[in-house]
Amino acid sequence: MSKIVSIHSYRGGTGKSNSTANIAVAVARKGNRVGIIDTDIQSPGIHILFGLDEEQMERTLNDFLWGRCALADAAYDVTSVLKDQASARSRIYLIPSSVKLNDISRVLRERFDVQLLLQGFKELINSLNLDYLFIDTHPGLNQETLISLTTSDIVLFILRPDQQDFQGTAVSVDVARRLKVPKLLLVVNKALTEYNFDDLRQQIEQTYEVPVASIIPESNDMLRLASTGIFCLNYPNHAISQAIEKVSKHIIG
To answer: From CA 224, how far away is CA 220, in angstroms rounded?
Structure first.
């Protein structure tokens, strides 16, 4: 049965989109058909990690929301990023949001039909025969994010070991519980290697009463890659990649 996985953070700068891309790739490598939708329409960017540029994106999520195409028509097969690190069944499809200033301004000005987006999720899963659909949400809590959380089988919260993140995540977790999301997971990102990860995990799990799927260490290697590719494909044996692998196992169950 297909699952919808929303990746969310209360604040920007947590590495949410990078985490989404890497986790989705880790799940796809295990022989799954995976879709990724960039619903961070105000500040899209996950397409860069998969090597898509503006000239290649003839259709985007925006075109679907404005009735110009079906959502599947805005899906780009980016399975080639896996190269030889996948099974025969593995597939990754990416639905980017437009990076054009006029399109972003229109969304901010006119908003869009959130119910249409939800219907699009279902149609996309059926059309592409997806096992998992990952939703890269906009940081914070707005109408679109709340609706995405409502339809999710799993919500994965990305947070840094930072007091502002801790407080904001508490709000997001409370909202997800009220929406009766079936499964909640936490991922701590950008943790300094000098931290005691076991103590940090225990502290966070006691605070939120939500499992910590993984703690991802801070690394200069991530900064050097500079969003020019998928980290776990470029550094398969790295501590970050091992942490991402743990998250994928939690999602697949």
So the answer is: 6
Confirm or reject CATH 3.40.50.300 for domain 3-252, answering yes or no: yes
Q: Nearest 5°: CA angle at 223, between 216 and 158?
A: 35
Q: Are 86 and 30 in contact (CB under 8 A)?
A: no
- pLDDT (mean) for 100-126: 89
Pairing mode, strands 3-8 and 132-136: parallel
Q: What is the pLDDT of residues 117-156, one digit of tens each?
A: 889 999 999 999 999 999 999 888 877 778 788 899 999 9
218: nearest Cα among 242, 239, 249, 245 = 239
Residue whose C-alpha is closest to residue 39's, from 95, 81, 109: 95
Is 204:195 a contact under the CB 8 Å cutoff? no
